[in-house]
Design brief:
The protein is mostly helical and 228 residues long. The chain has 10 helices and 3 strands. Helix 1 packs across helix 6, helix 5 packs across helix 6 and helix 5 crosses helix 7. It is globular, with a radius of gyration of 19 Å.
Length: 228
């Protein structure tokens, strides 16, 4: 009986590895036609979700360096250095929560990419555990530049507007390759909540955050992208 249990556990582990490694390895050469976050939106559409979503995949080389830098400056400035997790940010978030403050996010771009690709809107510990598992394997199997390319092509910039190409054309009427620094910063500024914040109708908060992102972009410099 014990031998059978061990065999079942081993088979279960192998199945889990296959279900994890194969899809992520395929992402090295295959652009996902659909992803978890988008599927959830289609089956459980939030308020103001359009009947027809907009999306157009573009390679990283067709996305302006200003846009690439903007999301790093806004969301994860340690992206080139970490292995998928910002431990300092996690510790700070936990410490703040213990002091009675609201638990804030500490997700890296890698974690956000894993969440958008494979998961769904939720705050459960189970979902965070699956997210961490997928993030670790993504960091092992994919390059940083590929993770950034995936993120920029699947993240939602507004209700039903996925990826930088669709967002650039919807808001600025030109391609993602032509985005200027201030435009890229404004797009990155809405990412915490693209249903609350608008690129085309920016609030005072969005404009303030955009200016802060532009300052961070200048400090980081586009040379940072060469390290990915």
């Amino acid at each position: 009986m014990l031998r059978k249990i061990k065999r079942l556990l081993l088979l279960g582990l192998l199945a889990l590895l296959l279900l994890t490694v194969v899809p992520i390895a395929l992402l090295r050469v295959v652009d996902p036609p659909i992803w978890g976050w988008q599927l959830h939106r289609q089956f459980f559409p939030p308020a103001h979700y359009p009947d027809q979503a907009r999306h157009q995949w573009v390679p990283l080389s067709h996305i302006s360096k200003q846009m690439q830098l903007a999301v790093i400056a806004a969301e994860d400035q340690k992206f080139p250095q970490h292995s998928g997790f910002d431990l300092d940010a996690i510790q700070q978030a936990v410490a703040a929560h213990q002091d009675g403050k609201r638990l804030r996010g500490a997700s890296t771009l890698s974690q956000q990419t894993a969440k958008n690709l494979f998961l769904w809107p939720s705050r459960s510990f189970i979902r965070k555990g699956v997210e961490a598992w997928m993030t670790g394997w993504m960091e092992l199997l994919l390059s940083k530049s590929r993770i950034l390319e995936l993120y920029l092509n699947i993240v939602e910039f507004g209700p039903g507007i996925y990826g930088v190409e669709a967002a650039a054309r919807a808001n600025f009427h030109h391609s993602a390759a032509s985005l200027a620094g201030y435009q890229a910063a404004r797009m990155a500024a809405v990412l915490p909540n693209p249903y609350r914040f608008s690129i085309s109708r920016p609030s005072a908060y969005t404009l303030k955050r955009s200016r802060w992102i532009q300052q961070q972009m200048k400090q980081l410099g586009t040379g940072l992208l060469k390290t990915l």
